[in-house]
């Protein structure tokens, strides 16, 4: 027995394409009661009554990365995607520490804005959780003083793109590309 899928072309991208992440937004899973997926794009979030505004995480350019990896076991017939979002926050201080402690105890949806202005959802199938992290003071004056955080997501597919209007609902703020 074969598994037949409708395959589609992938053309070369001749436009600008840069790596990196601009910002990350996180929301408690309990704050979102529904997600609308249209043609593979998240087009709407339904927010719970009284849901708080999502948290926004900002960091230095070229310091954070989102990696998604297919995990396939042909013998078991299982497929899934592990996504890791690694963020670096320069300068250890109480406000950042408090936010990281909250992330360590949260189950979240996370929206990542890449440098190309695209938004990506983590947590569609299962909660995003903090999987690793720490802080370092550095040793010399030129070393970094920072916190590092890794958020993990286990899903059935690669992260879904999120429309700008859905991001506005998620974050409760007008967004710019």
Radius of gyration: 18 Å
The CATH architecture can be named as Roll
The CATH first-level class comes to Mainly Beta
Number of domains: 1
Distance between the termini: 46 Å
In DSSP terms, counting alpha (H) and pi (I) runs of 4 or more, how many helices? 2
Low-confidence segments, given as residue ranges, are none
Q: How many E strands?
A: 11
Strand order of the largest sheet: 2-3-11-8-7-1-4
Describe the 3D structure.
- With 177 residues, the chain is mainly beta.
- The chain has a single domain (21-171), classed as Pnp Oxidase, Chain A.
- The chain is built from 2 helices and 11 strands; from the N terminus they run E-E-E-E-E-E-H-E-E-E-E-E-H.
- The chain has a 7-stranded mixed β-sheet with strand order 2-3-11-8-7-1-4. Strands 5-6-10-9 form a 4-stranded antiparallel β-sheet, covered by helices on one side.
- A hairpin with a 4-residue loop joins strand 5 and strand 6 (78-90).
- The longest helix has 11 residues, at 94-104.
- It is globular, with a radius of gyration of 18 Å.
- The mean pLDDT is 90.
């Amino acid at each position: 027995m074969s598994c037949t899928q409708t395959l589609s072309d992938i053309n070369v991208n001749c436009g600008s394409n840069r790596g990196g992440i601009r910002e990350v937004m996180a929301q408690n899973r309990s704050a979102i009661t529904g997600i609308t997926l249209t043609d593979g794009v998240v087009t709407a979030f339904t927010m719970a009554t009284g849901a708080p505004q999502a948290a926004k995480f900002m960091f230095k350019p070229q310091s954070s990365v989102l990696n998604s990896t297919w995990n396939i076991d042909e013998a078991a017939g299982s497929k899934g995607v592990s996504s890791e979002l690694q963020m670096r926050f320069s300068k250890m201080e109480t406000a950042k520490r408090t936010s990281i402690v909250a992330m360590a105890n949260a189950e979240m949806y996370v929206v990542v804005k890449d440098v190309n202005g695209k938004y990506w959802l983590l947590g569609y199938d299962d909660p995003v959780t903090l999987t690793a992290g720490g802080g370092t003071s550095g040793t010399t004056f030129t070393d970094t003083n920072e916190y590092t955080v890794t958020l993990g997501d286990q899903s059935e597919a690669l992260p879904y793109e999120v429309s700008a209007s859905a991001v506005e609902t998620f974050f409760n703020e007008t967004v710019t590309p």
